[in-house]
Amino acid sequence: MKLTIFGASGRTGTHLVRQALERGHQVTAVVRDPARLDVPAHERLHVVTADVMDPAAITTAVGEADAVVSALGHRDTGPTTVCQDGARSIIEAMAKTGARRFLMVSAAGMVTDPGDGPLTRYVAKPILQRLLRHGFADMGRAEEAVRGSDLDWTIVRPPRLIDKKGTGRYRTGIDRSVRGGVQISRADLATGILTLISEDSSVRRHVWIAD
After folding, report:
1. In what order do the strands lie in the sheet containing 2-6?
2. Which one of 51, 94, 114, 198 is CB 3.0 to 4.6 Å from 99, fit for a cystine?
3. Residues in domain NAD(P)-binding (predicted)?
4. pTM over 0.85
5. CATH number, domain containing residue 52
6. How many domains does the chain have?
């Protein structure tokens, strides 16, 4: 399978690229700075230096992809439009080329869901939503853009991401949060996303994923 990965030099994106290559996929990693991509050269890895915010600059990168994955995000807590602008640009580029399958990493913390336990619903998430209100607002608008497209999309909503060795074990909820799912390793998140690509049941759905 031919995969195009945005945010490939980030912590989640790096796992996606590495695991995709391990699974035998052909990978196009789109980055702003190739020096930040912590993945060894590989015969099935093509690194593209481009600005994701420019649809014209990324059209070629998505043109032949069987699936496109966005792991774009931001690390600070101030106002931002990174996710929404990136999502809109990718959607526009995919529309021009006819590419269909799109998976975007979002965040479970911004959504209060019936599957949440009382502590999560009334204590943890309200605090998190205040602290990360700018980032969540940006991600929410990115989700709106994706849902408004005619792509075969999947929005993946993980909880707190941690950097530890993957176990290959995780739980998912389709259009519903994972009860007690407060964290997941970036490695396991990447494993889950790569599995979801070929699962028709996840198309045009929100998938919560957690340990």
Report:
1. 45-49, 26-31, 2-6, 67-70, 101-105, 152-157, 205-210, 171-174
2. 94
3. 7-199
4. yes
5. 3.40.50.720
6. 1
